[in-house]
Amino acid sequence: MVWRPGKSSSSATARSGCSSGYYPLTDIQALNNLASMSTKMPTNPLALAVLALCFERPMHPYEMAATLKRRQKHESIKLRYGSLYTVIELMTSRGLIRSKETSRGGKRPERTVYALTPAGRDLLRNWMRHLLAEPAKEFPQFEAALCLLPVLPPDEAVALLRDRRSRLQEKLMQMRAELQDILGKTFAEVAGADEELPAPLLGLKFPAILVVENEYRLTLVKAELDFVTELVRRITEQGWGPASLWRDMQASCEREYQRENDAATQETASTAGSSMEVG
Question: If I label 214, which of 40, 72, 108, 279 is the partner at 20 to 30 A Cα–Cα?
Answer without folding.
Answer: 40
